[in-house]
Design goal:
Order of helices and strands: HEEEEEEEE
Strand content: 25-35%
Largest sheet: 5 strands, antiparallel
Strand order of the largest sheet: 1-2-8-3-6
Radius of gyration: 20 Å
Shape: globular
Length: 176
């Protein structure tokens, strides 16, 4: 007679490969794209040597591509910004790697700062970045006196960046 406490699985479940999901070579979910951004941010050797600063225009470099996504590295000298825009049909992850950027939306203004990679929202005094859906309208600007560097993951890859009128991105400060 068997009871629930007598129930055992014969063998090692890891030895039954058809029961396990195959590891993915490329990210496919929002969480995996955010994880990709965190892993690149944590490994400065992947991006630090590539950063350039240009006082005339924002500098950018496509760091990586994969099936259905792109990873971009951008630098921002003081005063540089995007103007209000969205990313067409692309979703994205914006991560600040160095310095501080300000994001303005119709809902308010947020300060995005480089912070300890992997620290939870409560472990930082400021937000590390943003995950956004298609049609998300925002303006990003470096309104500090120090340069900044950011990482952007777009999925699918960025094909358009429609500009918007400024009033949609003016707003009150958002508190965490």
């Amino acid at each position: 007679m068997n009871s629930d406490s007598d129930l055992q699985i014969a063998g090692d479940i890891l030895e039954v490969p058809h029961l396990l999901q195959a590891p993915r070579e490329h990210p496919a979910t929002v969480a995996e794209f955010a994880g990709l951004a965190r892993s690149i941010a944590a490994d400065r050797s992947q991006w630090e040597h590539l950063v350039r600063y240009d006082a005339a225009s924002r500098w950018y470099h496509r760091l990586r591509t994969g099936p259905g996504y792109e990873v971009w590295l951008l630098s921002w000298v003081p005063g540089q910004g995007t103007g209000p825009h969205d990313h067409g049909r692309s979703s994205g992850v914006l991560t600040v790697l160095e310095g501080t950027l300000t994001e303005r939306t119709e809902h308010g203004t947020r300060t995005l700062s480089a912070g300890p990679v992997g620290a939870g929202a409560l472990g930082r005094s400021r937000e590390w970045g943003r995950v956004f859906a298609p049609g998300y309208v925002h303006e990003v600007v470096n309104d500090t006196l120090e340069p900044a560097v950011s990482l952007h993951v777009y999925f699918p890859g960025l094909t358009e960046m429609p500009m918007h009128a400024a009033p949609s991105c003016e707003g009150r400060a958002v508190t965490a």
